[in-house]
Design a protein that fits this description.
Length: about 140
C-alpha cells in the first residue's frame, strides 16, 4: 500500500465521537474473511456494542465447517457475528444452506451477495423487479418470501 489506512480502533473512536450509539460492525482481516485474530485485536468500545463482520463464499479459504468451528465460533461466543457477504458461485445451494444453518445455530445474521443483475453466478435477481435467479430462490425460500 502506498497510503496509511485507519485502524479499527481509530474507526470505532471516530464513530463514537459523533455521539452515535449504534452497533458497529467490525470486519476481520483478508477482506473480512478471516476472524481467527478478531478477539485478540477487538477494538475497545465504550458502549460495548460491537459485532464482527465475516465474508464467506464457497471459494473462500475458510469454506468448511471445521474452519468455521475453529475460527468463527470462538468469536460468535463473545460477540454477535454478521455475515456481511455470503455466496456460492457454482449454481448450487448446499454451501450457502450449510453456512446459514451454522449461523442460525449461533444466532448469527447474514446477508447474501449480490442484489444485482450483472449476469453473474452470485446475482440474486434476474431483473430489478425482484425476480430471483435460481441462486436467489435459495434465499427467498429460506426466508419464506
Amino acid at each position: 500500500m502506498t497510503f496509511q489506512a485507519a485502524g479499527m480502533q481509530e474507526l470505532v473512536d471516530a464513530v463514537r465521537s459523533t455521539g452515535a450509539t449504534n452497533v458497529i460492525i467490525v470486519g476481520g482481516v483478508q477482506y473480512a474473511s478471516g476472524l481467527s485474530h478478531w478477539l485478540a485485536n477487538e477494538p475497545t468500545d465504550p458502549l460495548v456494542n460491537l459485532a464482527a463482520s465475516w465474508h464467506i463464499y464457497n471459494f473462500s479459504w475458510c469454506n468448511t465447517q471445521p474452519c468455521w468451528d475453529s475460527t468463527a465460533a470462538p468469536v460468535a461466543q463473545q460477540v454477535p457475528v454478521v455475515l456481511g457477504e455470503l455466496g456460492q458461485d457454482d449454481s448450487g445451494s448446499a454451501f450457502v444452506n450449510s453456512l446459514m444453518d451454522w449461523m442460525d445455530a449461533r444466532q448469527g445474521s447474514y446477508l447474501a451477495w449480490s442484489w444485482d443483475v450483472w449476469g453473474q453466478p452470485l446475482d440474486l435477481i434476474q431483473s430489478y423487479d425482484g425476480t430471483p435467479t435460481p441462486y436467489g430462490q435459495t434465499f427467498k425460500t429460506r426466508f419464506g418470501l
